[in-house]
């Protein structure tokens, strides 16, 4: 049975997704959660604290699930290429996105109105997939280009996060006149772009 805090987090994510960040009220969230208003102030200091905890909960879930998938990938794929790593990461993000559509709507609303909150949350949570990937590519790159590799991976990961939030923007950014057939098609395109950037860096060493 879900705790009062979990009920509030679920309701908050739903309300923020459907009504927007400004449109969702604490009173409306408590009504949706089936708890009293005092419960919100027991678990959360403010509306912004609630927003941060909704965001943090999903980040933690993705980290746990993604780490398991990453370890399974390394066992399954022998001698993975640069592109294999990127494809695995993008597909993991897409699967999480599909499982939690309300979270995607919530973070899209949040990014459009409170970009600072998203950046604050991401700043507190280094992307574990990014870090695991960096560990792997560092094995094949000279030490003198590690800093540049890290910068490129960070930039590409940010691009991927943004494109996953908005398919229309993805089409414009990637200059594609066609509609992506499915998630795998989209993942393949992103993996091609990301791996090409890292391959170019490796060739320039």
UniProtKB/TrEMBL annotation:
Q: Mind listing the UniProt keywords for this protein, alphabetically?
A: DNA-binding
Query: Please, which domain of life does this record's source organism belong to?
Result: Bacteria
DNA-binding among keywords: yes
Q: Does the record's keyword annotation contain Cytoplasm?
A: no
Q: Where is the HTH tetR-type domain?
A: 2-62
Pfam families linked: TetR_N
State the InterPro entries in the record: DNA-bd_HTH_TetR-type_CS, Homeodomain-like_sf, HTH-type_TetR-like_transc_reg, HTH_TetR
Recorded GO terms, molecular function? DNA binding
Q: Which residues bind DNA?
A: 25-44
Q: What is this protein called?
A: HTH tetR-type domain-containing protein
- Its source organism is Dethiosulfatarculus sandiegensis
């Amino acid at each position: 049975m879900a705790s009062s805090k979990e009920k509030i987090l679920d309701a908050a994510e739903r309300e923020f997704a459907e009504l927007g960040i400004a449109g969702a009220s604490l009173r409306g969230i408590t009504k949706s959660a089936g708890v009293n208003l005092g419960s919100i102030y027991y678990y959360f200091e403010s509306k912004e604290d609630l927003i941060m905890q909704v965001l943090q909960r999903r980040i933690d879930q993705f980290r746990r699930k993604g780490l398991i998938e990453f370890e399974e990938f390394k066992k399954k794929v022998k001698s993975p290429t640069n592109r294999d790593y990127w494809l695995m990461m993008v597909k993991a993000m897409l699967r999480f996105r599909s499982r939690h559509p309300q979270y995607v709507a919530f973070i899209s609303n949040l990014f459009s109105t409170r970009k600072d909150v998203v950046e604050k949350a991401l700043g507190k949570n280094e992307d574990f997939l990014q870090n695991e990937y960096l560990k792997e590519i560092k094995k094949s790159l000279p030490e003198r280009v590690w800093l540049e590799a890290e910068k490129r991976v960070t930039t590409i990961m940010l691009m991927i996060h943004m494109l996953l939030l908005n398919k229309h923007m993805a089409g414009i950014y990637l200059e594609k006149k066609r509609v992506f057939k499915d998630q795998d098609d989209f993942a393949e395109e992103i993996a091609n772009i990301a791996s090409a950037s890292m391959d170019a860096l490796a060739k320039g060493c």
